[in-house]
Amino acid sequence: MSTGELSGKVAVVTGGAGGIGRATAEMLVGAGARVVVGDLDEERGRELADELGDAASFHPVDVSDADQVQALVDHAVERFGGLDIMFNNAGIGAPLTRFLHDDLEDFGRIMSVNLFGVLVGAQRAARYMKGHGGGSIINNASIAAVNPGAGMLSYRSAKAAVAHATKCMAIDLAPYGIRVNCLTPAHIQTGITTYDMAPVVRYMQPLERQAQPSDVANAVIFLSSERAAQVTGIVFPIDGGTTAGPPLAQTKLIMSSLKTPETHDDGA
Q: Is the Cβ–Cβ distance between 50 and 102 less than 8 Å?
């Protein structure tokens, strides 16, 4: 059932065929928007658009190709009459390779999709929005954009660049009524996740709750709506408190290793 909050709005979701993109496309339609699903996976993308009905359309896109991104934006305008929301969500993962053993062969592809794809997606959407009343651009990064760690250096670098570029875009595009914000989700099981999530949540995330793609989709809805009319240039963690600090389980583990016979545990 539509909430109507985004009634009359047109959105593009890249990487929309699965995971976070799919959940977001579904929620956007549920909020009353019309949505173009952009993805390389034509079968799953068309299947989702069919499921969502007349409020959705699929258009194939490789976000590392500027001409294909422009065609995606053009399709939204031609099919639904405009573009108000751009969710630059498409991305690819990387193996957990330590820096000294990383041959960096995937550097170009990771940067092309995870950074260039966001830049060109935001640019082409903003070029339309500039003359049509503004809009909301949301760039999906990762907790890796703000929390350093070992391994995956190309991936982490691309995501960090997305977070910084978002703030620059927000300043540059504000005179045209275009808001630009960045999401940094963590510990969400999607198609590009390559590790067991349970121990990560236990020892890195204060909230003992497994995040879902819908948690990110909820943030997109908020940032797309008038409730976020004064919000631009933010880097928005959706991470169960990971950026706030270590969870209690990790703290207790450390403290237990430091106990002496005189140490007393009150159970708090």
A: no
Where in the chain are the domains?
10-257
Residue 240, phi then psi, degrees to nearest 5: 60, 25
Q: What is the pLDDT of residues 13-37, one digit of tens each?
A: 999 999 999 999 999 999 999 999 9
pLDDT digits (tens, 9 = 90+) for 234-250: 999 998 889 988 888 77
Phi first, then psi: give them for residue 258, nearest 5 degrees.
-100, 0
Global pTM reads: 0.90
CA–CA distances in Å: residue 219 to residues 57, 74, 126, 182: 22, 26, 20, 10
For residues 86 and 121, is the Cβ–Cβ distance under 8 A?
Answer: yes
Nearest to 233 by CA among 147, 160, 174: 174
CA distance to 99, 109, 152, 163, 183, per residue, from 104 (Å): 9, 10, 10, 22, 26
Annotate the chain with DSSP letters as a single string: ----TTTT-EEEEETTTSHHHHHHHHHHHHTT-EEEEEES-HHHHHHHHHHHGGGEEEEE--TT-HHHHHHHHHHHHHHHS---EEEE----------GGG---TTHHHHHIIIIIHHHHHHHHHHHHHTTTT-EEEEEE--GGGTS--SS-HHHHHHHHHHHHHHHHHHHHHGGGTEEEEEEEE-SB--TT--S-HHHHHHHH-SS-S-B-HHHHHHHHHHHHSGGGTT--S-EEEESTTTTT---HHHHHHHHHHT--TT------
Query: What is the set of active-site residues?
Result: 155
Q: Which numeric CATH code is attached to 10-257?
A: 3.40.50.720
Q: Cα–Cα distance between 234 and 166 in angstroms, integer?
A: 8
